[in-house]
Design brief:
The complex is a heterodimer of chains A (about 1200) and B (about 475). With about 1200 residues, chain A is of the alpha+beta class. Chain A is about 30% helix and about 15% strand. In chain A, a hairpin with a 5-residue loop joins strand 5 and strand 6. The chains are: A alpha+beta (about 1200), B alpha/beta (about 475).
């Protein structure tokens, strides 16, 4: 820890109440700051806490920074000298950390301390000095605005083609060096093509340039290349390095993401030569522009390229903080050329950036939500509309498809009115009509169930034994292994007369426990289901035929008796009874049948009046954005934590006691799969509601004990996750709706005692969602009822339930239609038609999406806090957005936001941005920046080799309207750029890294270009621009080292041969060939690629499947398109690869190699079909021989080098 | 070419060292390989050429057995009778305080180990019955029961253990070591990675060279297909054609070098020669048919299989050939449910061969200067993990506060046990060892001072141990 660090730590531990006996008294006379205090600071403090150094983040040379304090808070408390850390320290109250520290100056005299105390006690008045409105200053060169330099005088100005050359030449003159001669025209066109569009020229392009004798042929070539749509690909890829673009989320799961529209935006913006200032503003804050376009929103994907950790059990907030830190570092490196991130943990050791300033800068990015947006696409929209019309047409005619006659026997669940057990066990009637045994588990039992139903033509009875998570081994029985024995099953009619049964059948009977034993009148025999092979704990069905005629038309009552005397707790745990009805045998009036069925359905519903209440407050414990919508529902957006607790307060405005609470969970287009849950991994669109509490808050804020909830029921329950688990007191169990996402659902909580509230009270509903995979609720609505006997969940959507409560004759026609539509959607008769509609709906093509930034609403802003030692779990002082004071000021006005920051970055006053951007461009052309440390223009960075040239470029850039194309044109038309790259030994010894620019640039091309060259010369390249990323071939097993060992779905067809920048970028398993050739891994911003030279690169070019494919294609091309003679073919092949004409010796080597391989093929030593990978017809031998030549030529240093 | 070779050589050497000194350019002028003389590019400086350490080393090379997923120290090494006593009781609140957990609730019940423990060897090292083979070498290893880490999720913790930072993008241990010492392998990379039982959470970041030159990146060797990507010539290309091709490329490159004078071409020529040799040496390394039946049985290795056992044997073969750092990853220790069953399986796959590696190195005289390290990214809770929704029972959650690692060989005091945890195995009570201390100690044994092994990037000097790290003197021999 540094001395300053210790000092700060000491300050923190200071106890304010401690008597300050040893302190000199505060001066009682009026203290003058300028004449009495400032000199003390200057003599004893400013050395470490001034403009040059700000140890501990404290600077005492300016009012604002002194009053703000250090990394750990204020040091001056006006009016309270004893509470001011400044005094405690200079007064030596902390023996461990005296100020000034030992060796850093003499301790303050008692008089000085007395003055300081007096000054603070009198209010610490610090007059706003004349310079307080100006920026902090620094002597460091890069913090001063570039001044446009005069062009230097040079002895031989004729060499200079533009101002760049004057600066370069002046330096060479000083060094006593001469520039190299101009490179030959073949080299120049290849150099220009690789630099401007990243592709080598074709032979025809080379020839055209060589024969173009117009004086401005070079400039014309430059203009052609700048206008090429491939220019945006070449320069876009460089920008994507800085943007840390990738197609996956990173970290363990490293799932695919959709952000390629941002990549395409970059390509298009660069092709359109979008001015760099606008290019900046749209990427940093496109969403905050007035009426932003979709493109401007997509542009904010720049800062969505941060990684996302989706490992189970993480703290999502921790990694959100990590992404913020990355956004600051990236902004610093890309626009400011500063290592701002060094101030995350402590005030920057070298550059004038305090830790406080760092967090002020970070807070610009703290108030964003991170959604995905759908990208409008007319083709997809019209296809979706088309399908929607079909769906509507089908839905409108559903009623016409209702069958006009019964088709065979139909089953209908008999909803029990009553279910009793002889034992103390409790039989609960479930919303689905089933009966669940709970409470004590007797050794044997007898159940009686009463139903009243439409008995018309009922001829059979079905008994389902059902599983349930509450039962041993899930049941269906209550024996320890989940079995049961039903000894007798008896039915009586309304008159108490037995209904005789026969023809018992079951889907399975345990050996010795045949289902027929259940109706044989013998209590010693019965039905059981331990079928072996894991078939016990499943649903099972038995059915029985009624002897004699079916029941006549009309309703009636039946009583069922289930005798289970077997013992050993072999009683039924959950079961359901259904009635089997015979068809009426005649086709009737379709409409009348539908009406009848609908009425029957309606009368089976148990409904009540619910009133939906808009919450007065709703808070997410994990800072999700909660918005109350017009329909009183609440939508969660923004942060998506792993787990959450929603606290929802609803005003109680009716005097009647609340008897039940309904929680609807509702779909919304912003949610994954339309919700209602927010999960986007694994169970997409689902949620898990683990515990629910309801309590009253009185008007004066007193909170009551939670009210006891009698039961919970839902219209739909995922297997193993029933509604009642929300009130079982267990945090790891709950209710969810897997299998039925995308639709509204509801859970109803019936209170044990009615909740009686005073007027002005609020009902506090706490929704616990203790999960690990972001399965929180996305949209919900709370309703209450005062019905003295509220029913369980009805299964109807809330709006339909409202309609169903209206008497038939008072419903509007819309309401009647709505109700009928809902009936049709659940009527078993309509299942095939409904399935058809669902299928159609699924066939709607989805819009493409892209990840964007979106500012959080004003009422949901986060408070950014300094993090002690940079640790996210140690927040300290709150800070507001701001920029380091060493740099130019933010524009005036209240509440600086990201848009202000973006404009500040490209403000004319910014001393850094134009230099930094021009320096990177220079690096791209010459392999090295004028400032070699392109990411660090701070005091530890390298000094520019040509400071005046850099400043000239930096001032020229805004003058050219921030046009990148104009600046690229300027650079490549300079004589400096056009020099030959040969390095005579003496020059190489004098200037090995070509810092002085006495020769042209020569270096190996970037990883993607290595492959693009092979694709172009072999004729394989597919030049399509944009679209989703592709999967070109690579060796097997590259992705198997990544988590989950994902496969690499190698693209078929032309996508195999797309340019390198379209290759799918998987962060944890980068494309092998590119990684080998130094493509950055896109975890953090990269503004300078490495350029290594390794044996693995040799193995890639020699043996990688993609390059073998290219060699074969090039072999074929040589034979097909080249001349017929061997020498001619050798020249053709050589020119394709490197552009220039081969020398006589080079041709001779190639021919020699070719002839040798051709001979070996002829002799059968080499297998031609294996070399070319197949059995094609034609000149097999020649093709194979030339493929071996092609493979060698693709490996030449010159082929993959910009000469 | 008229250029005196010496001149070019001088330039490139200067060039290289200057670059490294200031962290610039990183124009890796030569190959990934070290040792032997490049056929004709003898003038080229080599980033992996052996370099002197800061001080006399105890170990010359490292085999690091990384148990990805985090094995349960409480069921393998750190026996807790109190857990037996309080099995099923809730963990006392004052023990847990405000610790964060990945999955469990902080008031979960304690769970005793289902395994028996016994003392072994002269040292009396206490081990679970799941580690019968490790018991054989109990007197050869040093066990540290008091390791702790800052991270409690797999990917960040693995990357932290390997690179000293929880975020991807920093150089890994093996990269730092080859950066500091180079390698003595003639025809193989200096830093080799072998993986069994699946991909690890940290992925390539675990063996990344970060901001160090790419030549220091860990090179994965695969047990199926090409051991190194693209090390096999394509179909139809026989060794002679491969040689002829490289000769043609070399001839044309050399001619061009004469014209343009760029030393990069010299480096590329050398890289091709070494690549050619690697095509022979890598498959030869992977070919276990020359190993005796006794040796194969010792490890439980089967030629052709993809297993941890094979990888242990390959690790020995790699260090025999001068490879500086071998990193074995074995995935599958993340036992959130059924920790007992999971350990049976994992120990079944790893115990015999881990022990065999020690025995084999010892009898070949290699253990004295080869450091072997065994451990995961964090430990596991004394509390049970059960979760109906996730279908978990009788598991253990992530536990960064205390876990166990062992080391053996070069410079380690054999038969040592360092550190202790409280009665419940929750907190460290004696000799805490932080991840940065482990890293500092490994570098120390190799003769490197972790505070001096630095590299400048992004405007500051970085080191493996960030701003901390203390060498663990008590386990040094």
């Amino acid at each position: 820890m540094t001395i300053a660090g210790l000092w700060i730590a000491g300050l923190l531990s200071l106890i304010v109440d401690q008597p300050a006996a040893s302190l000199p008294p505060a001066s009682l006379k009026k203290v003058n700051f300028t004449t009495e205090i400032q000199p003390i600071f200057a003599a004893s403090c400013l050395n470490c806490h001034g403009s040059k150094k700000q140890k501990g983040g404290l600077a005492l040379h300016r009012k604002a920074s002194a009053m703000a304090g250090g990394d750990d808070g204020p040091v001056i408390v006006p009016g309270k000298s004893l509470e001011s850390r400044l005094i405690r320290y200079v007064g030596g109250l902390d023996d461990d950390h005296p100020m000034p520290p030992e060796g850093a100056g003499k301790p303050l005299t008692p008089d000085q301390i007395s003055l300081l105390r007096g000054w603070i006690d009198q209010g610490a008045d610090w007059p706003d000095d004349s310079r307080s409105g100006s920026s902090e200053t620094s002597d460091h060169w890069s913090f001063r605005r570039p001044v446009r330099p005069e062009l230097p005088e040079v002895p031989d100005p004729s060499w200079a083609r533009n101002p760049i050359d004057r600066f370069v030449l002046a330096r060479l003159d000083r060094e006593g060096l001469k520039p190299s001669s101009e490179a030959d025209r073949t080299t120049l066109i290849r150099r220009l093509s690789l630099d401007l569009i990243g592709l080598p020229p074709t032979i025809a392009e080379v020839d055209a340039f060589l024969s173009d004798d117009r004086p401005d042929s070079y400039e014309k070539l430059v203009d052609r290349l700048l206008a090429s749509p491939h220019y945006g690909e070449r320069w876009g890829r460089r920008w994507l390095d800085a943007a840390r673009y990738a197609d996956t989320n990173g970290y363990e799961k490293d799932r695919e993401r959709s952000i390629w529209p941002y990549r395409d935006w970059v390509i298009q913006a660069i092709n359109a030569d979008m001015p760099f200032d606008r290019f900046t503003v749209e990427q940093i804050a496109g969403d905050l522009l007035p009426n932003p376009t979709t493109e401007q929103k997509i542009a904010t994907g720049f800062h969505r390229n941060t990684m996302i950790n989706e490992e189970g059990g993480i703290d999502v907030e921790e990694f959100r903080f990590a992404s913020l830190v990355d956004r600051v570092a990236t902004t610093g490196a890309v626009w400011l050329g500063l290592t701002v991130q060094c101030a995350q943990c402590h005030t920057h050791k070298f550059d004038p950036i305090t830790q406080r300033e760092y967090y002020r800068f970070l807070s610009f990015f703290d108030n964003v939500d991170e959604p995905e947006i759908a990208i409008p696409d007319p083709a997809i929209a019209s296809r979706r509309a088309e399908i929607e019309l079909q769906i509507q047409a089908l839905e409108a005619t559903l009623a016409d498809r209702f069958p006009d006659h019964d088709e065979g026997r139909t089953w209908e669940v008999a909803r029990p009115m009553k279910a009793d057990a002889q034992s103390p066990a409790h039989l609960e009637i479930q919303p689905d009509g089933s009966i669940l045994a709970t409470g004590s588990t007797p050794l044997s039992d007898r159940y009686e169930v009463e139903v009243e139903a439409d008995l018309s033509r009922v001829s059979s009875i079905r008994l389902e034994a059902l599983t349930d998570p509450s039962l041993p081994n899930q049941g269906p029985g209550r024996a320890p292994n989940g079995n049961f024995v039903l000894s007798e099953f008896e039915v009586k009619d309304a008159q108490g007369q037995p209904v005789k049964l026969s023809g018992a059948e079951a889907d399975g009977s345990q050996s010795g426990f045949d289902v027929r034993g259940a109706i044989d009148g013998d209590p010693a025999t019965g039905w059981a289901v331990d079928l072996g092979g894991g078939r016990l704990n499943k649903n099972h069905t038995a059915s029985f035929r009624i002897v004699g005629q079916p029941f006549p038309e009309g309703r009636g009552r039946l009583t069922f008796r289930l005798d289970q005397p077997y013992g050993g707790r072999h009683t039924l745990g959950r079961f359901r009874i259904a009635l089997g009805r015979e068809p009426s045998g005649q086709s009737g009036d379709r409409r009348a049948r539908l009406e009848a069925k609908r009425k029957a359905w309606e009368s089976s519903l148990k409904l009540t009046h619910w009133s939906a209440v808009a919450p007065s407050t709703v808070v997410s414990a994990k800072q999700a954005t909660m918005t109350v919508l017009d329909d009183r529902s609440v939508l969660a957006s923004g942060d998506k934590p792993n787990n959450d607790v929603y606290k929802v307060e609803i005003p109680v405005d009716r005097p009647e006691p609340i008897t039940a609470i309904r929680l609807e969970v509702l779909p919304h287009e912003s949610l994954p799969e339309n919700g209602p849950g927010r999960a986007h991994l694994f169970s997409v669109g689902n949620f898990l509601l683990t515990e629910v509490e309801a309590a009253l808050v009185s008007p004066d804020g007193q909170r009551s004990q939670p009210s006891k909830i009698r039961d919970a029921s839902a219209d739909f329950e995922e297997t193993g996750r029933p509604a009642r688990q929300t009130i079982d007191g267990k945090v790891d169990t709950g209710w969810s709706i897997g299998g039925a996402v995308g639709k509204p659902h509801a859970i109803v909580f019936r209170m044990a005692e009615p909740i009686q509230a005073r007027p002005g009270s609020r009902l506090l509903l706490t929704l616990h969602q203790f999960t690990i995979h972001q399965t929180t609720i996305g949209r919900f609505r709370v309703s209450t009822t005062t019905d003295p006997d509220p029913p369980a969940a009805s299964g109807l959507p809330a709006d339909v339930e409202e309609i169903a409560l209206i008497p038939t004759d008072r419903r509007t026609s819309e309401q009647a239609t709505r109700l009928e539509r809902d009936f049709l959607s659940v009527a078993p008769e309509m299942a095939p038609a409904i399935a058809e509609i669902a299928k159609l709906r699924r066939s709607k093509p989805a819009f493409k999406t892209s990840m964007v930034l979106r500012e959080r609403p004003k009422n949901q802003t986060r408070t950014t806090r300094i993090r002690k030692r940079g640790e996210f779990l140690q927040p300290t002082d709150p800070v507001s957005p701001g920029i380091p004071s060493v740099l130019h000021r933010l524009p005036e006005g209240p509440e600086p936001d990201r848009l202000k920051l973006a404009r500040w970055l490209v403000a004319p006053e910014n001393p850094l941005v134009a230099r930094v951007v021009m320096n990177r461009a220079w690096q791209a052309f010459f392999g090295r920046g004028l400032v070699a440390t392109v990411e660090d223009f701070g005091v530890r960075g390298e000094r520019p080799t040509h400071p005046e040239l850099l400043d000239w470029l930096a001032t020229e850039f805004p003058r050219q309207g921030w046009s990148m194309k104009a600046m690229h044109r300027l650079i490549v038309t300079s004589a400096t750029y056009r020099q030959a790259s040969q390095a005579p030994p003496a020059l190489l010894a004098r200037d090995p890294r070509n810092e002085l620019l006495a020769r042209g640039p020569r270096f190996r091309v970037d990883s993607e270009t290595v492959r693009d060259i092979a694709l172009v010369v072999s004729g394989l390249l597919d030049p399509t621009i944009g679209g989703p990323s592709v999967y070109p071939p690579q060796p097997d097993g590259v992705t198997s080292l990544a988590y989950g060992q994902p496969s690499w779905p190698t693209s078929r067809g032309r996508d195999r041969y797309r340019r390198g920048l379209y290759t799918f970028t998987k962060r944890t398993a980068p494309f092998a060939a590119f990684a080998t050739f130094d493509m950055p891994t896109s975890e953090v911003a990269c503004v300078r690629r490495e350029r290594s030279n390794t044996p693995l690169q040799a193995l890639t070019l020699l043996n990688d499947p993609a390059f073998i494919e290219a060699a074969r294609a090039l072999g074929g091309r040589i034979v097909k398109e080249g001349p017929v003679d061997t020498e001619g073919r050798a020249r053709f092949a050589f020119r394709l690869c490197v552009g220039r004409v081969a020398s006589v010796e080079e041709v001779a080597s190639i021919v020699g190699f070719h002839d040798q391989q051709a001979e070996r093929i002829r002799l059968g030593e080499l297998d031609a079909s294996k070399i070319i990978g197949g059995n094609p017809k034609g000149e097999l031998l020649e093709w194979a021989a030339w493929s071996t030549v092609a493979r060698a030529l693709l490996n030449l240093d010159e082929t993959i080098t910009k000469e | 070419m008229s250029t005196p070779r010496q001149e070019l050589k001088g330039i490139t050497r200067r060039h290289f060292y200057r670059d490294c000194g200031v962290g610039l350019g990183k124009i890796a002028l030569a190959s990934l390989l070290a040792g032997s003389q490049p056929a004709r590019g003898e003038g080229v400086a080599n980033p992996l050429a052996p370099r002197p350490p800061h001080f006399a080393p105890k170990a010359k090379r490292v085999i690091y057995l990384f148990m990805a997923g985090a094995p349960s120290q409480l069921d393998l090494f750190d026996f807790k009778p109190s857990l037996q006593k309080f099995d099923g009781k809730p963990v006392p609140a004052e023990v847990v305080k405000d610790q964060r957990y990945a999955f469990i609730q902080p008031d979960a019940s304690l769970m005793a180990s289902r395994f028996r423990f016994a003392k072994h060897g002269q040292s009396g090292l206490e081990l679970s019955e799941m580690l019968p083979h490790l018991a054989i070498v109990a007197d050869d290893i040093a066990v540290i029961k008091s390791v702790h880490t800052d991270q409690f999720n797999h990917a960040p913790a693995q990357i932290f253990m390997n690179t000293g930072s929880s975020l991807p993008g920093r150089p890994s241990l093996g990269s730092w070591v080859t950066y500091g010492l180079g390698s003595e392998a003639a025809d193989l990379p200096g830093f080799v990675v072998l993986a069994s039982a699946g991909g690890s959470s940290g992925g390539v970041a675990n063996w990344s060279s970060g901001f160090l030159p790419a030549a220091h990146q860990g090179v994965p060797f695969r047990s199926k297909g090409d051991p190194i990507l693209n090390v096999t010539s394509p179909t139809g290309v026989d060794p002679r054609l491969q040689r002829d091709t490289i000769d043609l490329v070399r001839g044309l490159n050399r001619r061009h070098l004469g014209t343009v004078g760029d030393p990069e071409i010299e480096a590329r020529i050398a890289a091709y020669e070494l690549a050619y040799r690697m095509q022979t040496s890598a498959p030869a390394l992977m070919d276990l048919s020359g190993e005796s039946k006794e040796t194969l049985e010792l490890y439980g290795a089967k030629p052709g299989a993809a297993s941890f056992a094979n990888n242990c044997l390959l690790a020995r073969r790699l260090v025999e050939r001068g490879v500086r750092f071998v990193n074995l990853y074995h995935e599958g220790w993340d036992h959130h449910s059924d920790v007992a069953g999971g350990l049976k399986n994992q120990c079944g796959q790893t115990d015999r061969s881990s022990s065999a590696l020690i025995l084999d190195l010892k009898r070949r005289g290699l253990l004295d200067d080869t450091l072997v390290v065994w451990g995961g990214e964090f430990g596991r809770t004394p509390m049970v993990e059960s979760n109906a929704t996730l279908g978990r029972s009788l598991g253990r959650d992530h536990h960064p506060q205390a876990f166990t690692m062992w080391m053996a060989g070069g410079g380690i005091k054999p038969g040592t046990t360092l550190g202790a945890t409280d009665d419940l195995g929750f907190h460290i009570t004696e000799s805490p060892v932080h991840v940065h201390d482990i890293q500092a100690t490994i570098l120390h044994l190799l003769g490197l001072d972790h505070t001096r092994l630095t590299y400048k990037s992004q405007g500051r000097d970085f080191r493996l141990t960030d701003v901390s790290g203390v060498v663990i003197d008590k386990i040094l021999g």
